[in-house]
Write a structure and sequence with these properties.
68 residues; mainly alpha; DUF4116; elongated; 6 helices; DUF4116 domain-containing protein
Length: 68
């Protein structure tokens, strides 16, 4: 499903297909670069948590640590 959304942009598709085989975490990084693909991308449930950590780049984690 991710490849379908990324395929629309085209530019990320080349990178995504290669990164997907290496690590889906890297795939999200490539999708985030395009931005548009990230919004339209319909990711399966098992990638949802990774989207959060990759999209925030640890920004939320930094806020949670001191608050906790």
């Amino acid at each position: 499903v991710v490849l379908t959304a990324v395929k629309q942009n085209g530019l990320a598709f080349g990178m995504a297909s290669r990164l997907l085989r290496s690590d889906d975490g890297l795939l999200l990084a490539a999708v985030q670069q395009n931005g548009l693909a990230l919004q339209h991308a319909t990711l399966p449930p098992w990638t949802s948590p990774r989207i959060g950590s990759v999209a925030t780049l640890g920004s939320e984690e930094s806020d949670r640590s001191p608050c906790g």
